[in-house]
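Structure tokens please, single chain.
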Amino acid sequence: MPLNHHGVDDSVLRAEDVSFFRGSRTILDSVDLTVHRGERWALIGPNGAGKSTLISLLAAVSHPSRGSVSVLGYRLGRVDMRELRSHIGLVVARHPLSRDLPARDVVLTGVTGSIELIPRWEPTPAQQVRADELLNLVGITQARVLRWATMSQGERGRVLIARALMNDPALLLLDEATTGLDVAAREQLLATLSDLAATHPHMATVTVTHHFEELPASTTHAALLREGCLLVQGDVETVLTTDNVSRCFDHPIQVSRSGGRWTARST
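Here you go.
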């Protein structure tokens, strides 16, 4: 699938007047969002704001109830969703892998977009080399002996990022990927994400979280989501302010930034 660039339009994600309904409940309400190549977005909001629903649309996993979503130049509903997903890297905290696969095999499932290795499918030598290179990139150096069942949560998170990069995606989506990590593992994972800004400068990323400490320093843009509505979006410095965040969470919250990282405290 060749990716469309639409001339000077370098957007990789475009949601226009998007709503999503579950029964009589409105999960997303008239959302507009555009992400351009090389931008690194944070999608922030309280529990139940609709963040995971929005990311499932951006990941070409589900369709909007109303409005349009275009991913990598292709409008959902007019494209083979499975083929489109092969160009999207998606990292979720609770990867549903049940078998005790070695780290390299977990990464290789990114080629086929499957959770398990597909029976009778064999990776090429080049794909095996790439898997090892990506594991080294994310700081996993014992790929031959490290197995899923004995990995720490932090190691799993980094292996899943390597998996998401196997097909050299134009878009990387992280849905609360640091959930359950201790401080050291979280910092290692965030350092990996910041390094990607240098090693993959044209790749767009969207990180979903409700914890400001989990935002990588490389974040360039942010959007605040509350009760299915985008309250404010744009350059990260103008969005992540005390006033905007307090309104988003309906609670007085002091936002500060030091050394490129954010903190949020109740006032």
